[in-house]
Write a structure and sequence with these properties.
It is a single chain. Helix content is about 40%, strand content about 5%. The chain has about 170 residues and is α/β, with parallel strands linked by helices.
Length: about 170
């Protein structure tokens, strides 16, 4: 009986703090939230914004930024200027307990969210770089693009190699 009591006591001690409410142990909901990357409307965020509530309560893993609001057919979504984007990404990160993935689709060519009309530099397309067939030029422009998005607090670029329309 004494051995049984000893084993029961050791078991209870070893499982103490391992409940589902332990903040160090991610819940299924936290894990699901980390797999989501969502868009939102706004040039800035405050603690009262719905996206901040989603970041904090749903443990969102990422945010994607857009320059145009397709459903509303409005040219205002998340991008206004380099300083505004830098501020916005900093605000978003400040409300998250984990590093957010902040993404953009900045391919160059036809798909460009960081447009010159917002104060961003011109970009070149993959098709243009392919026609040059010069690895040094490709590396130069890729590095330039990576430096730009990194300086804005963006850490994911959804650029993809496309096929020529020929």
């Amino acid at each position: 009986m004494r051995i049984l009591f000893l084993f029961a006591s050791l078991f209870l001690l070893s499982t103490a703090g391992c409940s589902q409410t332990d903040p160090a142990v991610p819940t299924l909901e936290d894990k699901i939230g980390q797999m989501l990357m969502v868009g939102f409307r706004g040039m800035e965020v405050t603690a009262e914004d719905p996206i901040v509530e989603d970041i904090q309560q749903l443990n969102l893993g990422g945010i994607i930024l857009f320059d145009y609001d397709v459903p509303r057919q409005s040219p205002e979504r998340n991008i206004e200027s380099p300083q505004q984007v830098r501020t916005l990404t900093g605000q978003l990160q400040s409300f998250s307990e984990t590093l957010l993935l902040i993404g953009i689709d900045q391919e160059g060519g036809r798909v460009v969210r960081l447009k010159p009309k917002f104060g961003f530099p011109e970009t070149v397309s993959a098709q243009y770089l392919g026609s040059l067939n010069n690895p040094d030029s490709t590396q130069h422009f890729a590095h330039q693009q990576a430096e730009l998005i990194s300086s804005l607090g963006i850490n994911v670029n959804f650029c993809a190699g496309g096929r020529s329309q020929h």
